Structure to design on (421 residues):
């Protein structure tokens, strides 16, 4: 079974040169920081502007997220995030639509864009080992605008399912069952208790399941326990898979002069691959490569990489990441979609104003000698804005008792653990 390893973002690995120059003998050494994983689809039918914009937006979300967690494992699904926010975009209006269009780089409300989204989802789903699903759970009392329903069907081939959010726990079980069904059972308890309430009106969903077999599997006989050096300076013994083969490899330099290496590990069929990215110098932080994460750079890598005989060593590992993306998206300038006073999703319904409450994602990924198995579930939970926002003092707080006419403070205190007598 795969085991969790390291305290970094993405996935660590060691790659050592097999032949020739001294430079190659130094390539892909064990790093104190983990490398990044990028799953790439090479089909020419996907090479369109919208796909590039979705990739860039998803990588921007990832880059922002890792800055908040530079010392821990993190894996997200850029496609899942783009999908649920794309569905939200279909229901946005006015300044909210302008903001989403500006930050995401495209609008699914523009002519021809829903068809491109549908074709992208179709091409992904046609790959062996890939399952993609979009879903919309709507409260049975909400009357959706006809244009929103039509757009969902056209772009995501999704028909809204009615659900009773006045029974939040039952609604949660229905949604978790849906995500389990569409992730091969890998993500069976997606939404935690308390996320849904009677104020919930819609939940926009994306599920992605991937099971890829390496084009050339690693031989388990060559897997050995080796030290992996973590970001905090400690080391841990991990099962290191090793293979000697011809890999697409390349050496690149950032605008700031940071050297880094990229190696591609293809899956069976070669339309899907894993790109491993790592700084050349051992003491260079992985965050130094953040600006390189964009679709144009990935295209550049692919054009410049060459087949080279290498000995690749990569840990057998598993990742399980739960991410609340509200803070990350707000830092990226998308905070208005969460605002009760500013959010405008009137293309969804005109019966009551709505705002996004949470954007949640759960990703599980396993990498072993055979290949890679991964699933993601992403949800945008949309609430009614008409409700009174709750302020709950369910954590430590200060209190002040003041005489207002004079301003005198009679008492001031701190409550860390309420006690009754």
């Amino acid at each position: 079974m795969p085991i969790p390893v390291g305290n970094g973002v993405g996935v660590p690995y060691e790659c050592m040169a097999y032949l020739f120059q001294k430079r190659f003998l130094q390539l892909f050494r064990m790093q104190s920081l983990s490398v990044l994983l990028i799953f790439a689809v090479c089909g020419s039918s996907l090479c369109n502007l919208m796909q590039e914009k979705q990739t860039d937006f998803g990588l921007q979300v990832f880059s922002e997220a890792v800055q908040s967690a530079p010392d821990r494992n993190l894996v997200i699904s850029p496609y899942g995030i783009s999908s649920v926010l794309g569905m939200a975009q279909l229901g946005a209006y006015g300044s909210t639509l302008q903001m989403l269009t500006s930050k995401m780089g495209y609008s699914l409300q523009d002519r021809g864009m829903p068809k491109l989204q549908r074709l992208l989802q179709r091409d992904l789903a046609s790959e062996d080992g890939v399952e993609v699903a979009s879903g919309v759970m709507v409260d049975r009392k909400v009357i959706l605008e006809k244009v929103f329903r039509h757009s969902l069907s056209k772009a995501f081939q999704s028909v809204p399912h009615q659900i009773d959010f006045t029974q939040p726990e039952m609604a949660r079980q229905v949604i978790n069952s849906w995500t389990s069904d569409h992730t091969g059972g890998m993500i069976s308890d997606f939404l935690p208790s308390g996320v849904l309430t009677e104020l919930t009106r819609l939940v926009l969903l994306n599920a992605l399941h991937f099971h890829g077999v390496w084009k050339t599997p690693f031989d388990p006989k060559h897997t050995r326990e080796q030290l992996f050096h973590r970001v905090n300076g400690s080391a841990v013994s991990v099962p290191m898979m090793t293979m000697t083969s011809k890999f697409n490899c390349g050496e690149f330099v950032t605008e700031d002069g940071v050297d880094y290496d990229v190696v591609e590990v293809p899956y069976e069929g070669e339309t899907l691959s894993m790109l491993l990215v790592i700084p050349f110098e051992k003491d260079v932080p992985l965050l130094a490569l953040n600006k390189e994460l964009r679709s144009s750079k990935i295209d550049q890598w692919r054009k410049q990489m060459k087949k080279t005989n290498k000995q690749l060593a990569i840990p057998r590992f598993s990742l399980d990441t739960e991410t609340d993306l509200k803070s990350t998206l707000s830092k990226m300038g998308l905070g208005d979609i969460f605002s009760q006073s500013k959010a405008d999703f009137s293309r969804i319904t005109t019966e009551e104003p709505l705002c996004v409450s949470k954007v949640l994602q759960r990703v599980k990924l396993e990498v072993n000698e055979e290949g890679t198995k991964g699933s993601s579930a992403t949800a945008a939970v949309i609430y009614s804005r008409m409700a009174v926002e709750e302020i709950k003092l369910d954590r430590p707080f200060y209190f002040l008792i003041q005489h207002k006419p004079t301003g005198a403070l009679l008492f001031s205190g701190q409550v860390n653990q309420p006690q009754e007598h």
